[in-house]
From TrEMBL:
Signal peptide: none annotated. GO terms for molecular function: hydrolase activity. It comes from the Eukaryota. Residues 87-335 form the AB hydrolase-1 domain. It comes from Rhododendron simsii (Sims's rhododendron). This is AB hydrolase-1 domain-containing protein.
């Protein structure tokens, strides 16, 4: 466990440090083709899509302090940059860019410039910094992982590397991350895609008031294989056990990094995302993608969001699909994102005062 310290936006005195500037990236490869910074358990993963995308993960320098120090931030970069608006893929709560393993290649094959980025505190970024100041010599600290710092980190990554207004895609809690970002940095976001978004939870609730030791105990449970396996069965009922086990290993791979527990506890105790008041402030055109069999987020909440986003919103329903359409139905999700990016989706504007099921476009899976 790291020391209970955070860097905030203050300079680091000595320690492990990389100067921002020059756009240098870190992706040292092992002989297997996987980046050397990934946990060794990546070799046990069998999913060919996960293995392929994992081999493309890089770390880019992103500055969030005033000292010039950087967080080496993990993402999958596009092979080439286009003149059109880039598509930037976020992920769910406590997940990683590997969540997009089945949809990312389809978007890329369609000719889009696609980035899959890890939200600060999750994924495979390097959060550890070693303090060399005599009194604190040898202590490892990490940046705060509250929503404000996650937002600022994403902005700095966009400002340093992406640099153009983007189509920001957020599934589940990533929908809250996307809304929070779009409202605070509207110049960085051209359009929003919200996939089965979890945006009406008021943060982490009562667990934000837990004593720190109890929060660590809860996080250990969150990391546990039985709980993760159960969650996968809940989301993907009916898939074979061996596949469910492999997808569980993909989903918890980032949890094996040494700072994951500290970062997750910091997020939980910060109160988490509460974007309810921000929804009606969204000015960008938004597409809500809804898996009709979602047993995590109520369909009624999806419709409520569709209405509250106003006249610039669209909704697309994917039948026979649960909470993670980009994993279950990658072809359908990729088609929607491509068409939305090109302006081909639902040419007629829905009436936000009468947004019943007649206003929802149904997509063939």
């Amino acid at each position: 466990m790291m020391a209970g310290l955070t860097l905030g936006f203050f300079p680091v005195i000595g320690g492990k440090r990389m100067e921002c500037g020059g756009g240098k990236l870190m992706h040292v490869r092992a002989s297997s083709g996987f980046p050397s910074f990934l946990p060794k358990e990546v070799h046990q993963i069998k999913d060919p899509f996960a293995r392929t995308l994992a081999q493309r993960i890089q770390r880019l320098p992103v500055q969030i302090g005033f000292s010039g120090s950087c967080i080496m931030s993990s993402c999958v970069k596009p092979i080439r940059q286009q003149e059109t608006n880039p598509v930037v893929l976020l992920h769910c709560f406590d997940s990683s860019c590997l969540e997009w393993r089945r949809t990312y290649p389809l978007l890329e094959d369609a000719g889009l410039e696609v980035w899959a980025v890890d939200v600060l505190g999750w994924g495979f970024s390097d959060l550890a910094v070693v303090i060399l100041f005599p009194i604190l010599a040898g202590l490892e600290v990490l940046p705060p992982c509250d929503p404000a710092t996650k937002r600022y980190h994403l902005y700095q990554l966009w400002k340093s590397h992406i640099k153009r207004p983007m189509i920001l895609v957020g599934p589940s809690l990533g929908g809250a991350v996307a809304i929070d970002f779009a409202v605070n940095y509207p110049e960085a976001v051209k359009k929003l895609v919200l996939i089965n978004p979890s945006v009406y939870a008021e943060g982490t609730g009562l667990i934000a008031k837990l004593p720190r030791k109890m929060a660590y105990a809860m996080v250990l449970l969150l990391k546990s294989m039985p709980l993760r396996l159960y969650a996968k069965f809940l989301m993907f009922g009916g898939i074979p056990f061996t596949l469910c086990l492999d997808w569980t290993n993909v989903g918890r791979l980032h949890c094996l990094l040494p700072w994951w527990e500290d970062a997750t506890v910091d997020y939980i105790l910060s109160g988490g995302y509460n974007v309810v008041a921000q929804i009606k402030q969204v000015k960008q055109t938004a597409l809500v993608v809804w898996g009709e069999n979602d047993n995590i987020v109520s369909n009624k909440l999806a419709m409520k969001l569709f209405c509250e986003l106003g006249p610039n919103s669209r909704m697309q329903q994917i039948p026979d699909c649960g909470h993670l359409p980009h994993v279950e139905k990658p072809e359908a999700v990729a088609k929607l994102i491509v068409e939305f990016a090109r302006g081909d989706i639902c040419e007629t504007e829905p009436n936000p005062l009468a947004c019943g099921v007649d206003d929802v476009c149904v997509v063939d899976a």
